[in-house]
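Morning, I've got a small favour to ask if you have a moment. The fold is given in discrete form, as structure tokens running alongside the sequence. I'd be grateful if you could look everything over and explain what you see. No rush at all, and the record is pasted right below.
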Amino acid sequence: MSIMSYNGAAIIAMCGKECVAIASDLRFGINQQQTTAVDMKKIYKIHDHLYVGLSGLATDQATLAQRFKFRHNMYELRESRKMRPETFANLVSTMLYEKRFGPYYAEPIVAGLDATNGYKPFITGMDLIGAMAPTDNFVVCGNNEESLFGVCESMYKPDLEPEELFEVIAQCILAGVNRDCLSGWGGVVHVISKDKVITRTLKGRMD
């Protein structure tokens, strides 16, 4: 058993037209088979236009989320401005690489809008030592990446409007976790546009 799939997770981020979406499942498992909770938070808000999703070991997720927020707050105090998504992604990558000989067992996905560049969407995935993989369509992580990639490749289209993007990413996360017994039990979607953030909870199969 991989320690990365000990608690189970499924996370997707997608780019749209001046918007970006990030979604995760809600299951929290122990030792893979035992479901302990169905309201596990895996996506964390850094600021209004920037979110980070974390898959992997739940304890390391919580530690990293606190450290990321602390580093952003220190940057905001020093620079008097919000951190750009690409800058934040490089910060996350550096923090993970610093611990490469005893890494955190978590893989982040960074999703945000760059307000200094016409609200251009930015998403990137990473491995547990911080190797970035930025893209302009979609990125996935979790213990069922193959299923998530399959449904995203089937359903994704470029330049989706926020409501269309929500529908696509919601269908992708629900279809993807139905093919994996270690994630699922509902989901949550955040759609980030330049003037608002839409957060909706999805109902999924509970078996």
Remarks:
- The radius of gyration is 16 Å.
- The first helix runs from residue 58 to 79.
- The chain has one domain: 3-202.
- The chain is about 30% helix and 35% strand.
